[in-house]
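Complex record, two chains
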Amino acid sequence: AQSVTQPDIHITVSEGASLELRCNYSYGATPYLFWYVQSPGQGLQLLLKYFSGDTLVQGIKGFEAEFKRSQSSFNLRKPSVHWSDAAEYFCAVGAYNTDKLIFGTGTRLQVFP
Amino acid sequence: NAGVTQTPKFRVLKTGQSMTLLCAQDMNHEYMYWYRQDPGMGLRLIHYSVGEGTTAKGEVPDGYNVSRLKKQNFLLGLESAAPSQTSVYFCASSLLAEQYNEQFFGPGTRLTVL
């Protein structure tokens, strides 16, 4: 069965620093991968998604993610973090021929000025 | 265009009480989902619907019932609330259920069961 692991529960960075949030998936075929962001007290918003093609995907708010099949990873990156990026980030996988997404447990990002 | 809305935003129940959470979407989406979010556990699917009049069980369906009488509405019911159902509940919808379709989320309902 497919699964998603986000190894980092909580990450703290300084404003202006670079960011990488890790996501590993378990699935036999090519997965469909997503990153969502949840600001405090809000619902989830899609940052970016990968289906096929170019393994480097650009999203909203200056985020990007790279699909690496050999490492079963889909890490989220941002070159310079802003205070408004403080939120919880969820990686999710949607497997072929299913109608559900499997979510990771989330990574909470804290940004210091 | 309001997207996905949820009613109520907050609720406190006593053990054994019942309640219904309402989710509404105005995007003409076919698929709708109910999740619960608990600390350290991410989002877990409770029930979902592939269209008006249909429902299906997700990962954690016990203690919940759902109905989709109208395409735009998806109701989540708790017949006899238990403290273990204290959680934040999110509704989501998608145009299709294909795996690459984005799910749009509501703002959530925070439920406390005493």
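Note: Chain B touches chain A at residues 4, 31, 33, 40-45, 48, 50, 58, 90, 92, 97-103, 105-108 (CB under 8 Å).
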